[in-house]
Design brief:
This protein has 5 helices and 11 strands; from the N terminus they run E-H-E-H-E-E-E-H-E-E-E-E-H-E-E-H. By secondary structure, the protein is α+β, with helices and mostly antiparallel strands.
Length: 239
């Protein structure tokens, strides 16, 4: 089970998001929202590559205790979480796109290419797709467009909601077998239509903001990166 961006840092790179705004605006909006219900958080501004910065997100926790906002070579910033099972950015995106009156995007890029058999006790899991968020989308919380392909223990399921957007290939959603309907390539193509290059390390700049909630050891589940990875795959898959 791997990710196209820094697979050795999965599950933090199973899923991540983008906000169409600047780093100062996003960090201030998120900190302002946090202050409305908690004063137990810390903000650190960092200079360094994305992979080195993600390493500072340990330990991984459930729920996520740290969020990284990082500048990119576009008018979007990227958002990562340190969730032990990967990022869960639904609430984060709904809040920030409303507060900042901007667009948001979450991509899911976890692929498991191992063959599955009924006697296999290892977890097989694929989650590919994207969610698009827009300001002024009404009172409901959630994306205006969602596309997903999931595989769990060899069972595949494709879902979509909302109106087709520019950059999507409608014919692909009708393909068989179902696992051809969403691919890393189709996610990348859609992102490029928005001016994003999510799988290219050089797309991410060395300016970021790390916002940490209370001490990670206070969270119900707290694991090192290696411990979290053991849930999904063998270390040999990361080489």
């Amino acid at each position: 089970m791997i990710s196209p961006l820094y697979p050795h840092l999965a599950p933090m790179t199973f899923s991540w998001g983008f906000l169409k705004t600047g780093l100062p605006q996003a960090s201030e909006a998120f900190r302002s929202w946090l202050k409305s219900y908690s004063s137990h958080f810390e903000t650190i501004y960092l200079d360094g590559s994305l992979d080195k910065t993600l390493e500072q997100m340990q330990p991984l926790t459930l729920p996520a205790s740290k969020r990284l906002l990082i500048s990119t070579q576009s008018n979007w910033i990227a958002c990562f979480e340190n969730g032990v099972k990967g990022a869960d950015l639904l609430s984060f995106m709904s809040i920030l796109t409303t507060h900042l009156n901007c667009e948001g995007l979450v991509i899911r890029c976890a692929t498991d290419k191992r063959m599955y058999s009924p006697h296999d006790k290892n977890e097989h899991f694929t989650n590919l797709g994207f969610d698009v968020f827009a300001p002024g989308a009404g009172d409901s919380v959630g994306p205006i467009r969602s596309v997903s392909l999931t595989q769990y223990y060899g069972k595949w399921k494709f879902k979509q909601g909302g109106n087709l957007l520019r950059g999507e290939i409608a014919e692909q959603y009708k393909m068989n077998p179902v696992q051809r309907r969403v691919t890393l390539e189709s996610i990348d193509t859609f992102c490029h239509s928005l001016g994003l290059s999510p799988f290219a390390p050089s797309f991410y700049l060395n300016r970021s903001c790390l916002i940490s909630m209370q001490e990670a050891t206070d969270f119900p589940i707290s694991r090192s990166l290696i411990e979290a990875q053991a849930t999904f795959f063998n270390a040999s898959e990361l080489r």
